[in-house]
Amino acid sequence: MLNKTDFGLMIGTAVFSFEGIGMVLPVVQGMKDPKKFPLVMTIAMIICLIVFTLIGAIGYVAYGDITQASVVANIPRIPLSITVQVLYAIAMILTSPFMLVPPLEILTKYIFGNRSGANSLQIKWGKNFVRALVPIVCAAISFGVGSDNLSKFVSLIGSVACMPLCFIFPGLFHYKVTSNKSLRLVDICLVLWGTGMVIYTLYVNVNSWVHPASSSAIVISMTNCSA
């Protein structure tokens, strides 16, 4: 029941799925009553947990070991499945700009500082160039990785980028602002746990790229089933 070889990939992917720190500030700023954000976040996380669990379980029950990273790819090539894939692509195109807003704001702030493009055409087009370059780079990376390695790439991002944001940095920040020894002990445990998980999941992920035996087995199984 448990794939011990690639189990670590699931951890990175799960953390990536729940990681939304980049949207916290925009959501809080857009709320009428920001004090209710913890309640909103809790409800949203519960809903996401239920949806992710149901979709993952249903997909695995339906397709078993040949379940692909995107379960939509398992659906037979019929008009309905093609429509679902097109709608999924449209949803990604429409939501990606929202996810890119925080990093683009940070990047343009770092490059151009407080200089505004309102009175300078050079700065204005410089910012536009940076904003256009980031999606192009992301698209190039996605094409380079390919659909076959999507799950590994997502897990890698989850291990390297999302895991520290979930476990390590919150513990470090809270350790600095609290004087309670018990809470500081919890923070230390959280940081150590996060560091260990980063090392473990990163090792499993790198090993899956170097020795893609399990992925090859899945591809062979899918080929046999389609034949």
Automatic annotation (TrEMBL):
One of its GO terms (cellular component) is vacuolar membrane. It is a multi-pass membrane protein. Keywords: Membrane, Transmembrane, Transmembrane helix. The keyword Protease does not apply. It comes from the Eukaryota. The chain crosses the membrane at residues 6-27, 39-62, 82-107, 153-173, 185-203. InterPro entries: AA_transpt_TM. Pfam families: Aa_trans (PF01490). One of its GO terms (molecular function) is L-amino acid transmembrane transporter activity. Residues 3-194 form the Amino acid transporter transmembrane domain. It is found in: Membrane. Belongs to the amino acid/polyamine transporter 2 family. This is Amino acid transporter transmembrane domain-containing protein.
